[in-house]
Amino acid sequence: QVERRHCLVSKAVEEVQKIIQQLTAEISYKATRFQAISNSGIHNENIKVLAPSQFLVTVPLRGLTGYRERQVRHWRYYTVHGAKLLSSVRDPEELHQWLEVEQFSKSLRQWHEKDVNIEGDLVPAKVLIVFRELVEKSIISCNLSSKVTVLESFSSLVRVAVETSESQVEVELVPAVEIPTCWPKKAQWPHCLKHWPSQEKVQCIKSLGFDLLARSNYHWQLCFSRAERILMEGLDEDGGCRMKCFRVLRQMKEDVWCAGNKPVITAYHLQ
User: Fold this and answer.
1) Spatial separation of the C-alpha atoms in residues 171 and 55, rounded to whole Å
2) pLDDT tens-digit series, residues 163-221
3) Structure pTM?
4) Where do the structural domains in the chain lie, given as residue ranges?
5) Which of 95, 89, 62, 86 is nearest to 75 (CA)?
6) Architecture (CATH level 2) of domain 2-270
7) Residue 145 has what DSSP assignment?
8) C-alpha closest to that of 57 among 27, 82, 32, 84
């Protein structure tokens, strides 16, 4: 069962990757702020398999480099549409943050425009609105209407249904600011009783940086996919069998605990 799942998922990833790569290449052609995902096989860093029929694909944003953390706190009094508020917008939740264009030493002129920027803030909801329009137009211009359908959503998230040879896969497309070589202060590394991972590995992982995902209205979500990948790859470096246990648990989750196309428990929870 585990091997069969691996084959099916690998095939789905390959097909979805090919379609999304074509789609994002067209989006990047239309708007240079968005970068096409790479076509790098089943281990593509931009594709996260949450479940066999549920993928998350991060779409890198171009033209934001030289990130530095913001030290001074200030209040925001605007809606995502730019209207004024009498009371301030709530603070970010844990592992979320505001993002100002001035936090980057270099930024494309387009990131200062009103379609994505309010009072110097890069607003995820506005980025998603621009991105969604590009997705819809690019599906048509790439002649992908028979394979890709934009799903209705009550939020600003961009989800599409992709038809593969075996089944339909729901894919969330998430614009992402990639921030290499920097680790956020609010993401404190947990103190573990056992000596795994080693301090050397922790420092190596932190040097890979993190991403900021546009998945809410005001605040950017911190994402550590590169760190997760390195940790998972070294899960059995002491000779254990944790990866095998993980795969068995994942199979039980998909066959018994959360059978169906939209599981409540995903790979995030199991990891």
Assistant:
1) 5
2) 999 889 999 999 999 999 889 988 888 776 567 778 888 888 889 999 999 999 999 99
3) 0.88
4) 2-270
5) 89
6) 2-Layer Sandwich (3.30)
7) T
8) 27
